[in-house]
Amino acid sequence: MADDCVNQLQSVLLNSSVDFSPNFDATGKIDSSLLGNNKVFFGDFDECQALNDSLYCLVDFSANFSPPLQKPFSSSGLFWGLCAVESCNRTVIEHYASELIEGVWSINWIRIFNATVTCSKQLQFVPGFYCTLSLLLLLFVICLFGTTFDLWYRFTARMRWKLIYSLNPNGPQMVSPPPSPSEPRWRDHTVTAGTVRGSDDPSSCSTDGEGAREEHRTELGGSWDPPDRALLRRAYCFQPDFKVKIGSYFSFYSNVRVMSEIDPDDIVCLHALRVIGLALIILGQTFLAAYASRTARNPNEFEKFGRRFSFQPIACCFYVVDTFLLMSGLLLSYNIRQSKTAFQLVLYLIRRYFKFMPSVCVLILIWTFVRPYCATGPIWFETQNDVGRCQRFWWTNLLLIQNFYPESIESSCVGWLWYLAVDWQLCCIACILLFLLSRGRRILFRSLTVLLIVCSIVVQMVLVVTYEVGANPAAALLHSDNTAFWKYMNVILSKPYCRAVPFLAGLLLGQRLNSERDSLISMKKKYVFCGWIVCLVLGLSSIYSLYPLMLGYSYSPVASAVCQSLVSVAWTLATAWCIYACRHLLAGPLNCLLSWKGWVVLSRLSFGAYLFHGVVLQSFFQSLHQSFFLSDVSMMSVYLMALSISFVASVPLYLCVQCPVHRMLS
Known about the structure:
Strand content: 5-15%
Low-confidence stretches: 171-227
Shape: globular
Oligomer: single chain
Number of strands: 8
Strand order of the largest sheet: 1-3-2-4
Largest sheet: 4 strands, mixed
Distance between the termini: 65 Å
Mean pLDDT: 84
């Protein structure tokens, strides 16, 4: 087989005496900008796939170049697309990769090494694909039936009240709104000028109309007897059954209304911070996904981006995660309004787990069984690596230990879900502290929280010095040090004992805001002004203190440890002041911006957008059939596409999974 493969490849690719070959036409040729670090030579994937008895293979290799009149240089991670004949296999092509590349490119000043070959193949549908589609279809059908039941109940409720009015000769006027399945005491409504009042006794009304008891009175004097007491009983004493209640939970109509509702006790600015923070994270992830895909035609532009002064907020998107940890801790302690027993706190943790886990399960199913069949391309085979990781480690996401096992986030299933594990682990620790707070031990609660904050800072500094972790992961990528980047991700960013500072600070802030729930704090303007100046200084210093690392400078291990710890503290304090000032209307125009009601809808969808943004970005770059030109316009186009599709994809997830589960568990 090897001899047949070599002979056929020589005849269709290397023999210049043969007529023009479609295989040669579809094979990647050496392109311009080789000195500019161009590494992508895909060829024409679609043309090769359309040929009979042809096989598209992608060669990932490193090379030493010694061009004439130029300084020799080396390059790694090059992609070369080969349209081979069907009799070839991966092993043979790897063995003859150097000869093939030199022959097709017609150059003799290149030396190939570390070549690995992956050949495309037709994917066969697996049972998991059909099961996942069936599950998604079932959810959609349930929501359609739920919407039907919900609208039917709302229509019949209005008809029942109209019937009650028609049976009252004095022209009744309704004081309270029509009943709703979501109201706990839906039967207790009053009609004046000849009123029928539902009794608090559950036995007074029954769906079959038997054994029912009504209490009649008139505020105009005298008594009245409806012409048909049984009809009135059936009209007023109708109770929604299990189907109607479940229908309201899975109703598109009801869930869309819930999406825009605002709780009077909400800290409204948190909705805006959640959306803005997620938008900044997705922007940073767009550049990270473009870098990881290795499909840029001009990858040297990444270094130019990193050296820009205006690029630093994007490079520091890793620290925006602290904003979400701060808000998570804040809401956890802010919502503790009364004493909680240990059992009640455990029930809270269980309810919190089941609120977000169904959405995570849907994401894992789509990522593992649906996404591999959604596109093709020269590097689409990488989706099979993602499938293999999820088949091995899907259970770690259910146990929320994916930030500890497997050892590297790179090897985990749906890697960006490490945040959920960190948040859950910190929440479990926080419940112990909140148990003290609910028992009135405020001083002990604050003392232990501050002590844990100090311990987290110390542990973080020790780990940075011990493992020699850099303070800025973006700088590591900028200088092509992928090892340093993943070391930061695995040792610092994904560990709860290193991310505890913003979460614990949020506990203290939430306890403070909870004690001031019913009042607004007045503060002199000079103190407010000083607070915002300090907030601005802390925020800018946390972003630009790492700028020298992007320019190529290096910090000592001790300096990196101090910088890493202080950056997290500074960002946390700046965000905490912003939230506190907006809560007490001390932010001026900023409070008007962050309190806009439009943020509420986007905030409800932000969790789904967080789940889907990685799917959108990786699917886009892995499905490219040609290299792309890296520029401001191209990256902003990809970013806006990923941001909009992520939020659009989160709408059905919210209406069919997230909102129904929240309403059932609330």
